[in-house]
TrEMBL record:
Keywords linked to the UniProt accession: Cell membrane, Membrane, Transmembrane, Transmembrane helix, Transport
Domain of life: Bacteria
Topology in membrane: Multi-pass membrane protein
Pfam families: MFS_1 (PF07690)
Name of the protein in question: MFS transporter
Transmembrane annotation, as ranges: 19-36, 56-77, 89-106, 112-133, 154-174, 180-198, 259-284, 304-322, 328-351, 395-413
Compartments in which it is found: Cell membrane
Amino acid sequence: MDPVAPTGSGLRWGLRANAAQFTLLVVVNALVGGLLGTERTVLPLLGEQEFELSAYTAALTFILAFGVTKAVTNLLAGTLADRCGRRPVLVAGWLVGLPVPALLIWAPDWGWVIAANVLLGISQGLAWSTTVIMKIDLAGPRRRGLAMGLNEAAGYLAVAATAMVTGMLAAGYGLRPAPFLLGAAYAALGLGLSLVLVRETRDHARQEAATHRSAVDRQHAALSTRRVFALVSWREPALSSASQAGLVNNLNDGLAWGLFPLLFTAAGLSLTQVGVLAALYPAVWGLGQMLTGPLSDRIGRKPFVVVGMLTQAVALGLVAAAGTFPTWVAAVLLLGAGTAMVYPTLLAAVGDVAHPAWRARAVGVYRLWRDGGFAAGALLAGVLADLAGIRGATWAVAALTAASGLVVAARMYETHPVGARRRH
């Protein structure tokens, strides 16, 4: 049974009690992911073929711009969601994202592409962060892992499907404008649904806060944003472990997004094959979260994070060592599986520890560090690739990912009550 909110307001927590609104938010987040997916296959090739960017560091500036703006906006989104409500932040995210496809279609130089990715980062930070917060509000404490699994699965399955479709469109009609017209449709539909059908969920969090007992601070629910930032960034072991693991995870994704298409085309793969590889990784990532999210509600969060980070390290090593399409298929499948273990589990762990009164800000800080990984990945991978090639950069990131998993194993405690009981 879904628990009833304690104040007689008629609000309920739980997926069943909020099925219609939760499903709508899943669809909205799929559209958010689809807008991001329009860039996964096409944009690295656009930089190389149309704008003739020869240095990897220069080519990855679009990911750097995206990562920095999305990371900072995540922090802002959490604060705004607490102060102004969730729905206005979601609508604002879609409004900022509307011009992105047009900028990419008509960009006369690489500066326009960077500007489009600044807007995309802001849009994703506002919209994706808010759908996460809203689903945590609706799900309540019992099904947080399942809720995050469904949310992230929807987003990254849409990334995968769009990456494959845009690869096919680029092969048939060129790199512009056809692939980006799909993004324009996503943005228009997402804005319309958010304006007309999405409802505010902040009251669910307020009702939960009335009875919540936080693992971090049982007596003081009203924390300053500075205190929340310190807890999530370095002071609280589970929250800070999640933040560093999230950063390294998205560092991996920045590498895969910006450099893997160039590695695959240099090896002689067709645009269609590159699109398949670009789609398989987020597809397994997306589908896998539908399993790993709810399993973390039964087994606990920490095992999935540790094993997932180590699995990603092995997969990256395989990408660096491989040279054929079938081997790269195996590598990206393994990379997607490792990411699926980590992604919803880290968000659920943050939700476990953070008090509802400052949970939105905690999610914002976590996502600041996590999506800062895009920027770190763009810088690190670009510099290493210019010095040692794409394969050398991939080996280095594989080692860093393994180290991150070991940090989680040593420092993070189990945040879910079921997992904690199993270990005692």
